[in-house]
Design goal:
heterodimer; A: three-stranded antiparallel β-sheet; globular; B: Immunoglobulin-like; 48% strand
């Protein structure tokens, strides 16, 4: 305090036309308590235990083959900051498919399944392991994050940011008539999940940081590798991921008068979708992306519809859910003060 | 009017002398002004060059003024007290007038007609009534002085024993007690500015005067001053000039006593015995094993004060010291809930309703467990001290040095299996230096003040352990048990064999349904210390005010001033053992519910607290600069126009010293108009407009602008429950486990979704909150009109209408369900999609006030008021959360539903009546009888349920206030004082106060918790009866409720929604949770010399 008394005079000189300090580089994250946004149906899924994170939409730049057909996926971040050391801030990124294919037996299960245990009803989850990284540390990519935004309101991630796993082959003897997920090759009652190499290499990742957009938009380039296939994408990420059937489902405003056919989730009527209203304007409203590729992606969440009471009815393998997307260009937020 | 020639002594009658109270406007220096015009009694023309001398025991030396060409004299900067005025003009008879009572912040206008010397009469000595109507200001509120304190039974015994000055604020109309002090004009108590001798003693971190430790709502005070040391308390509720700022509530200014030319002092003491305190009616809660009751055991205080001269008329001193002790006794008894398993429809051993034994009202019967009654004491000790020196530098300049402070410590015991009780410390110290000077024949006045206000607060265990200790309760974690299916009390405590058997089943095993300690929202506290904190708060302040008198089409009093404040908070915090654990709702796991630290890698948490660590160290600060300009323009002593402008700026700095938030250019205009239609100071009609700005307390800088980093993991209870050889987390077996064994990563339960980089770690708390670049400061507007009329000698009758509303409000909000927050204005700027914060207050008051004269005094007021909106103020009355500008009101969109309606402080009718009368028995003895009555109508009751993220009492199931109102509360107090006058200087007084004479058991608070379930707020359609749709309106067996709630699977994840049934409703809803204080008797003795 003694030193600060002498800043008494200095501080008084600061008085007058101060502007609000620029926000530090925040990164939007999900709820720690595992509870979903009231506007999002994902929390109703028995698979999704936490609040959903970003929806990263992928626009293909180069590449052909199986790895060039991704419409996008959910990614999550964690900002790692040390108090009073803003210049040592890092950020971790974790993509949904890589993490879910690896699976977690203590939590959310796995994407793939095979019915190999006659004693259990229904198929069992198939967990994948990278023998060189059994704890799965490399499912997270970690790199340095700027402490303060640039003049264009962006916070850049510097250094290599990669997620990578080389899963070994898994073999199971199926019970007669047993189900198995499509990634396996079945031959004579034996399901083989071949070795699978997946790598995400992110570059030029930048978060938008303004008073209105607290790290809930990011842009990046992604080089995605699946075995021998490589494709590059332009990525635009928006938080939070929100599922929809129609454009009106994406409305951030409470709509108590909307009819049943316009809004597919009853709770949304009173809360709004949870999307930031600043992300849309009259010229560029929110849009529900209902492409087949997106439906194939949301099918991995294992949710389908709601009964009259509003309870979810899970159906595997098929989904008619789309994802809300922002149509406003990111440059709208990165120019100006 | 010509007066008779031969009168020996002329008695001037009321009509000739206009003795009026006509302050230009409030002065924050704690002094008063004597002014007036002198005219020739024969010709009526003004007389110039008349010497006006003011003397008083309260004044060092004497002060002289001289009348100008218009006959006006003005003597300012006079300390409050009893004055004598003597006027001497050439060719006129000298004129003397005594018994002029000068109160703080008042200007007394004494117009005098001088008798020419030619008339044969002796010196004129005036006798007449004291001033009543204050015709120079629109300020609402009142001054409370010694005669009120000594004669009216008002300040009740409280848990700390100190009879401190702020309780007097509730005497004024439109003021009501709230959880942390006194709400003025519908604002919350932390919005008030509190001063002692003009130096701000407002709490640096929380605003107002008090904040709570959270332990039984005990309050830490930023200042306390026994009423014995106080000359007067100036309660300003509204209509004030820009000299006072930094408050959207009111202003409370206490003026301390000073020395005099003679040694005067007193020795005093009070005693409130427990055996004369009536038993407080017990709070009945259904289905509980526990019953706790707290009652006053003994309370008392003792003190001495002395003032006098060191050098007569030059240097005076005043000292005071008081000690107070309050001991309350808490009793805990355990009960067993009764079941009858032999019944029809009942499954043996089940806790179904069918098995419960119920009484006539349908409440489950419970029987006391023998030998389980325990008594423990709460002890509060406080020492208050005051020392003051006033030094007259020259006839025009005065210096005053003052020091006052208190140390207060409260010890709270713990029942059951907590390792230690709590020791809460609240110390404060205020030092000030004031310089007062007058130049140019008192036409130019200068008042300068330098002040330092210091607070130290600490919440620690009472076993001597501290933050970072490796021994004692601070080194072990606390654990909150809460699972449903319930724990039996026997899981936690060893009871005597008879009681243990009554809580067990036929096989001698604990039967949780008989003596449950958890479940149905019940939580059991266990283990080490919970939250601990040590903090120092400091405020440095410097202020200069210049006053200039001028004549320009009437009399002007211009005032300008600058003041600067710099505040600091230095704090260190931790939880016992480094983390507070909480059992999961279904049992089987424990979570690090609160823990200070940060993640340096996914799933790798670095704990900053715990044994051997420093704890979470935080430093934040703020600075404020204010300047004002005002004029009071008096036209012909009939109309006064007050106009002024205040400019404020404020900056808040966070943990790293960098700017967190800035508020520039807060311009408050204040305008007032007063018209005296009797033109003799006996009436006024007035109107005023004011804009008030909030001074943001530093708690925002400490939390949102510094970042609160927390985290933890869910740990499974069962050893090897995860199949990886995990050791298990079992604090019931040994609470030491929480420091090592529980934290073994093998115990971690996966919580997250596939996309969370920390798969088992919870990330709670957040970094610095960003601020809306276009943030508007928080302010409130006030419109006021009123009238007053002097209906009898010394008594005035008044009526007023006040309207207040909020402009922008500053609050924190979140778009990601509470992970990160930003600071903005709800409804504006980046928070345009949040509802606008509203608080509308309208009040009509009718009052009658007669000062203590002719052996009696009376004060009566009735207020009708309405307080509506969706924002109560700087604390949340529903939960008691005090985090100014960052409470949970607007945190999430889902929290803002159903919030509009009558606010918790809405009291429709409020009646206050105070009276005292002295009966003189003979020359030595007199008896004074004092009475006070306060009555108020009820406050709104709401239906509250749990919010899935924010927890209990955060969701309004139906619109605010839908559940009706609490009933009226009445309180009658009586006081009898016997005074024996031993000689001219010495008196002995013995007094008896009886509070709540008729032992009314009015309901102060009722339980508003409808349910512990996470009910989704229901917005009724237009015209729909909300209670009908929720099946809460009464007995209609076939009613289908429209309410739904979130339902969860076994792992605690949301599984969907389900309909709400009566099983979700708490049986305690709308039951009284707090009764008014029962009948209490206090004895007092004072020897004055």
């Amino acid at each position: 305090m003694r030193a600060q008394i002498f800043s008494f005079v200095v501080a008084s000189a600061v008085v007058g036309s101060c502007a609000q300090p620029r926000p530090l580089c925040p990164v939007a994250v999900g709820s720690p308590l595992g509870f979903p946004s009231p506007g999002s149906p994902l929390g109703f899924s028995h698979v999704q235990l936490g609040l959903p994170n970003f929806w990263a939409s992928y626009t293909l730049k180069t590449g052909t083959g199986a790895c060039s057909t991704l419409p996008g996926e959910e990614v999550g971040f964690q900002k790692l900051e040390i108090p009073l050391k803003p210049d040592e801030t890092k950020v971790a990124i974790r993509p949904f498919l890589l993490s879910y294919i690896r699976g977690n037996p203590d939590g959310y299960g796995a994407l793939d399944y095979a019915d190999y245990d006659a004693a259990q009803d229904g198929p069992e989850s198939v967990y994948r392991v990278d023998p060189a990284d059994p704890d799965g540390a490399k499912v997270n990519g970690i790199a340095a994050l700027a402490a303060r935004p640039e003049d264009d309101n962006t916070c850049a991630v510097t250094g290599a940011l990669e997620n990578e796993q080389r899963f070994r082959e898994e073999r199971f003897t199926l019970v007669p008539g047993g189900e198995v997920s499509s990634r396996a090759e079945v031959d004579g009652g034996v399901a083989v999940f071949p070795e699978l190499y997946l790598k995400y290499a992110w570059s030029n990742l930048k978060f938008v940081s303004t008073g209105e957009v607290p790290g809930s938009i990011f842009t990046a380039q992604l080089e995605y590798t699946e075995d021998t296939c490589t494709a590059t994408y332009d990525v635009t990420g928006v938080w939070p991921i929100t599922l929809c059937h129609t454009d009106l489902d994406c409305s951030p405003n409470p709509l108590p008068e909307a009819s049943d056919t316009d809004i597919s989730i009853p709770a949304r009527r009173f809360q709004g979708s949870g999307l930031n209203p600043a992300f849309e304007n009259e010229e560029h409203p929110f849009r529900c992306n209902n492409s087949a590729a997106v439906h194939a992606y949301t099918a991995t969440y294992g949710i389908s519809d709601f009964d009259e009471a509003g309870n979810p009815l899970p159906v595997y393998g098929i989904s008619d859910w789309g994802v809300c997307e922002m149509t406003r260009p990111v440059s709208d937020f990165t120019t100006g003060p | 009017m010509r007066l008779g020639r031969n009168a020996a002594v002329l008695l001037c009658v009321v009509a000739a002398l206009c003795l009026t109270a006509a302050p230009s406007f409030a002065q924050s220096q704690g002094t008063a002004v004597l002014t007036g015009t002198v005219t020739d009694a024969a010709t009526g023309k003004p007389v110039a060059d008349v010497a006006v001398t003011a003397t008083s025991p309260a004044l060092q030396g004497e002060q002289v003024g001289v009348t100008d060409a218009t006959g006006l004299y003005r003597i300012p900067q006079l300390p409050p007290g009893q004055y004598t005025l003597r006027l001497e003009g050439e060719a006129y008879k000298p004129y003397t007038r005594g018994d002029i009572s000068l109160r703080v912040d008042r200007t007394i206008r004494l117009n005098v007609q001088l008798q020419p010397e030619s008339i044969q009469a002796e010196e004129v000595i005036a006798v007449g009534k004291a001033p009543t109507v204050d015709i120079g200001s629109t300020t609402t509120g009142l001054n409370v002085g010694k005669e009120f304190v000594n004669n009216v039974p008002f300040i009740q015994p409280n848990s700390t024993g100190t009879r401190s000055f702020e309780a007097l604020a509730a005497v004024a109309p439109q003021v009501n007690a709230d959880a942390y002090g006194y709400s003025m004009n519908g604002a919350t108590s932390p919005e008030n500015a509190v001063m002692i001798d003009g130096v701000s003693v407002t709490d640096v971190a929380y605003g107002g005067l008090n904040h709570s430790t959270g332990v039984d709502g005990l309050t830490m005070s930023s200042a306390s001053l026994p009423v014995e040391f106080v000359e007067e308390v100036n309660v300003i509720t509204g209509g004030y000039m820009p000299e006072f700022g930094r408050s959207t509530g009111g202003v409370i200014n206490a003026i301390t006593k000073s020395g005099s030319n003679e040694f005067h002092g007193s020795v005093f003491g009070t005693y409130t015995p427990g055996f004369l305190t009536a038993q407080q009616r017990g709070i009945f809660k259904e289905a509980s094993t526990f019953e706790n009751q707290v009652a006053n055991f003994n309370t008392g205080d003792f003190g001495v004060e002395l003032g006098g001269p060191i050098i007569k008329d030059k240097l005076w001193f005043y000292v005071g010291f008081a000690a107070s002790v309050a001991r309350t006794r808490e009793r805990r008894t355990l009960y067993r809930l009764e079941y009858d398993d032999a019944r029809d429809g009942c499954t043996a051993g089940s806790d179904d309703d069918a098995c419960k034994v119920v009484d006539g009202d349908g409440n489950q019967v419970r029987s006391e467990l023998p030998g389980t009654t325990e008594y423990k004491f709460h002890d509060a000790r406080a020492y208050n001290y005051l020392a003051k020196l006033t030094y007259l530098l020259s006839s025009n300049q005065r210096l005053a040095l003052s020091l006052n402070g208190a140390t207060k410590q409260v010890l709270t015991p713990a029942f059951g299996n907590k390792l230690a009780g709590n020791q809460d410390t609240s110390d404060n110290l205020s030092v000030s230096l004031k310089y007062t000077a007058g130049f140019l024949d008192k036409h130019l006045l200068v008042d300068a003040t330098l002040g330092w206000h210091h607070q130290y607060v600490a919440q620690l265990p009472d076993d001597g352990s501290d933050i970072g200790s490796t021994f004692g309760a601070a080194s072990r974690s606390g654990v909150i048990f809460r699972r449903s299916p319930a724990h039996s009390i026997l899981d936690f405590e060893r009871l005597n064999p008879e009681a243990a058997a009554l809580c067990s089943d036929a096989n001698g095993n604990p039967d949780p349904r008989l003596c449950p300690a958890t479940g149905s929202g019940l939580e059991y506290d266990y283990g080490g210390a919970y939250y601990m904190e040590k903090a120092t708060y400091d405020r440095l302040q410097a202020k200069v005010v210049v006053t200039y008198l001028a004549n320009l089409l009437g009399h002007h009093v211009f005032k300008a001033g600058v003041d600067y404040q710099r505040s600091f908070i230095d704090s260190v915090r931790d939880y016992g053992g480094g983390a507070l654990y909480r059992e999961s709702a279904g049992g089987g796991a424990y979570r690090e519910y609160r823990q200070f630290g940060y993640y340096d890698a996914p799933d790798n948490f670095v704990n900053q607290g715990g044994p051997g660590n420093t704890g979470w160290v935080q430093r934040s600060s703020g600075s404020e600069l204010g300047a004002f300009l005002q004029d009071s323009w008096s036209l012909l002593d009939v109309v006064t126009i007050n106009a002024g402008l205040r400019y404020d700026t404020q900056q808040l700095y966070g943990q790293d010293g960098s700017l967190g938030l800035t508020l520039n250019s807060m311009l408050s205009p204040r305008v007032g108009l007063i018209y005296d239609f009797t033109q003799r100071g006996q009436s006024k009609v007035y109107a005023s407009f004011a804009r008030y700005y909030e001074s943001i307390p530093l708690n925002v800088a400490d939390r949102s602008l510094s970042g609160e980093y927390q985290g933890g993991a869910n740990r499974i209870e069962q050893p090897n429950g995860l199949g990886n050889g995990n050791p298990g987390c079992q604090p019931l077996l040994n609470v030491d486990q929480t420091v090592q064994q529980c934290r073994d990563p093998r115990n971690n339960l996966v919580l997250a979704s596939p996309t969370e980089p920390s798969q088992t770690g919870l990330v709670t708390g957040a970094g610095k909150s960003p601020v809306d670049p276009n943030l508007r400061p928080q302010s409130s507007d006030e419109y006021l009109i009123g009238a007053e009329y002097e209906v009898l000698e010394n008594g005035r009758l008044g009526v007023s209408y006040t309207h207040r509303n909020m402009n922008a409000v500053i609050e924190d909000m979140s778009r990601d369900e509470g992970t990160t927050y930003f600071i903005g204005n709800p409804g504006y700027g980046i928070a345009s999609d949040f509802p606008v914060a509203k608080r509308d207050y309208d009040a009509v008051s009718v009052y009658f006030s007669k000062v203590f004269a002719d052996l009696w005094m009376a004060q009566v007021s009735y207020t009708w008021s309405s307080l509506r909106g969706n924002y109560a103020g700087l604390f949340r009355p529903e939960t008691g959360q005090l985090n100014p500008n960052q409470n949970s009101d607007f945190d999430l969109q889902s929290l803002t539903v159903n919030r509009d309606g009558p606010l918790p402080g809405d009291i429709t009718h409020s009646l206050k009546a105070f009276a005292a009368k002295e009966f003189v028995l003979n020359g030595t003895f007199s008896v004074t009888l004092g009475l006070s009555y306060t009555g108020r109508s009820g406050t709104p009751v709401s239906y509250l349920a749990s919010h899935p993220i924010y927890g209990t009492d955060e969701t309004f199931v139906l619109p605010r206030g839908s559940a009706g109102r609490t009933p009226w509360i009445h309180q009658v107090n009586g006081k009898l004082v016997g005074t024996a006058r031993i000689n001219k200087e010495n008196t002995v007084q013995f007094s008896v106060d009886v509070f709540n004479m008729f032992n009314f058991d009015g309901a102060e608070q009722v339980d508003q918790r409808l349910s512990n379930s996470d009910i989704i707020p229901y917005v009724p359609q237009a015209g729909q009866n909300p209670q009908g749709s929720a099946c809460l309106a009464g007995a209609n067996a076939g009613c289908q409720s429209e309410l739904t709630k979130y339902s969860y699977d076994a792992a605690g994840n949301v599984a969907g929604t389900s309909p709400v049934t009566s099983a979700d409703y708490s049986p305690n809803f709308k039951r009284v949770s707090k009764y008014q204080q029962p009948l209490t008797v206090r004895f007092g003795l004072r020897v004055t010399f």
